[in-house]
Amino acid sequence: MGKKELNFTVFLIHKLAEAWKKSPSHVYHVLKETGILDDYILPCYDTLHTLGSQYLIEDITQFAEERGMAQ
User: Pick from 4, 1, 26: which is nearest to 14 by CA?
Assistant: First the structure.
């Protein structure tokens, strides 16, 4: 993971933590346990980083719910 991807991931975790009203460590755990981080966010960085934060929050929230993880 390069610096750009790391910065984006940290940004996204903090945005999700704010939206979900959870700690960033909890959000990281959800993203790791569901595979969203390794199977979606990192491989799709080139596309995802061009999208708005509200869209990303909604998209990843739905993805986490589909994978059985309530925030």
Answer: 26
Q: Which tens digit of pLDDT belongs to each residue from 42-52?
A: 999 999 999 99
- 8 vs 12, 29, 35, 38, 68, CA distance in Å? 6, 17, 17, 13, 24
Helix (H) or strand (E) holding 60: helix 53-66
Nearest of 49, 11, 43 to residue 27 by alpha carbon: 11
Q: What is the reported pTM?
A: 0.90
Three-point CA angle 67, 56, 24, nearest 5°: 75
